[in-house]
Write a structure and sequence with these properties.
mainly alpha; two-stranded antiparallel sheet; two-stranded antiparallel ribbon; 11 helices; elongated; binds zinc ion; PFA4/ZDH16/20/ERF2-like; transmembrane; transferase
């Protein structure tokens, strides 16, 4: 009995379909031999694991940030703990320089300098000191500004994922303060405070006046430093040239001094203890002030550049990325908070008339900055300020 051709055709097609289906299942890693309930649970488990980290915005930056998160957390924690230590360090080091200036240098200036130079040193030195103390105190004690936590109608650009509150423009979260900061620039460990909308001027003026003070000490103390350094060097050589004492000083330690010279007569010391302390203090002052002048001077110049551009330190990175992104599309990014170099400085210092350059810039002033740090419509206040 011959099989029906139609039956054979259907059988062949069925076998082929089964093989294709099996191949497809294996190629997709789906093992149909497992019971349905096991496969369902496996699929549910996979979905649950994926849901823990899946994000449509996930990229290499997010993954790197997540991996670095423990390190950031540790740095934030240490910075928070050592905040008071850094502030004490600033106070102690500044006080030590003041002590040297008042006890060591001031009598010297009064006894040896001409009257015009005495007036200059006393006048400038005290103005600079007052600027440093005033701005440091205000920078540490003034709150940088925080966004409201209650419901409001203030426009916002995003939501802080840590505070779970709306973030107005220029607001960023500080991991060390653990709160959002208005117009945040950075967290300064030397102030143990964030630099934000309400204390940025104090911070910058402190940096500037401290740099000027260090440059002043460094320049005016240069000759004294050279004298003190050569005096200390001379004193060292005198010590080493004493007769009967080996150059390395080991003779005194192991008792091989020549006979009859164990109690040799030493010449009277050329410098008293007071002289030596004075020389060492001058060297300490010059080295410290010169180092701070270079380091803090660089920071001050960097912040001056940022202020000229109408940016904060954080916005500098954001704006650079935005400029690169827009350049790929053939567009030019414009910072909406840049009103032109001179106007940026006027906004920063709160200069509204010419006399303010004296009363608000050259002299200590406690006036509040423009705006509330929540909205940035400065144009109604200053009609001539148009973003460039
Ligand atoms: Zn926040
Ligand atoms: Zn902070």
């Amino acid at each position: 009995m011959r099989p029906c051709p139609t039956f054979l055709l259907v059988l062949l097609r069925w076998v082929r379909l089964r093989m294709c289906a099996r191949r497809w299942r294996y190629s997709n890693g789906n093992n149909s031999r497992l019971p349905l309930c096991v496969r369902q649970r496996w699929a549910y488990l996979k979905l649950m694991v994926n849901s823990l980290y899946y994000n449509s915005l996930t990229n290499s930056d997010v993954i790197m940030d997540s991996l670095m998160e423990p390190i950031f957390w540790m740095v934030d924690l240490l910075t928070r703990w050592f905040g008071s230590v850094f502030v004490c360090l600033v106070v102690i080091l500044t006080s030590s320089i003041l002590l040297i200036a008042y006890v060591g240098l001031l009598p010297l200036i009064l006894n040896t300098y001409s009257p015009p130079w005495i007036v200059w040193h006393i006048g400038y030195g005290h103005w600079n000191l007052f600027m440093i103390v005033f701005h440091y105190y205000k920078a540490t004690k003034t709150a940088p500004g925080y966004p409201p936590t209650v419901k409001n109608d203030i426009p916002f650009v995003s939501v802080c994922k840590k505070c779970i509150i709306p973030k107005p423009a220029r607001t960023h979260h500080c991991g060390i303060c653990n709160t959002c900061i208005l117009k945040m620039d950075h967290h300064c460990p030397w102030l143990n405070n964030c630099v934000g909308h309400f204390n940025q001027r104090y911070f910058f003026c402190f940096c500037l006046s401290m740099t000027l003070g260090c440059v002043y000490c460094s320049i005016s103390g240069r000759n004294l430093f050279l004298d003190a350094y050569s005096a200390i060097e001379r004193f060292k050589h005198m010590d080493l040239d004493k007769s009967g004492v080996p150059v390395t000083g080991m003779g005194q330690l192991i008792g091989i001094l020549p006979p009859g010279q164990s109690t040799y007569q030493t010449p009277p010391p050329p410098y008293t203890f007071r002289d030596k302390m004075f020389h060492k203090s001058i060297i300490y002052m010059w080295v410290l002030t010169s180092t701070v002048a270079v380091a803090l001077g660089g920071l001050t110049i960097w912040h001056a550049v940022l202020i000229s551009r109408g940016e904060t330190s954080i916005e500098r990175h954001i704006n650079n990325k935005e400029a690169e992104r827009m350049a790929k599309h053939g567009k030019v990014y414009k910072n909406p908070f840049n009103y032109g170099r001179l106007n940026n400085w006027k906004v920063f210092f709160g200069v509204e008339k010419r006399s303010h350059w004296l009363t608000r810039v050259l002299l200590p002033s406690g006036h509040a900055p423009y705006g509330n740090g929540l909205t940035w419509d400065i144009y109604p206040i200053r009609k001539d300020m148009i973003p460039v």
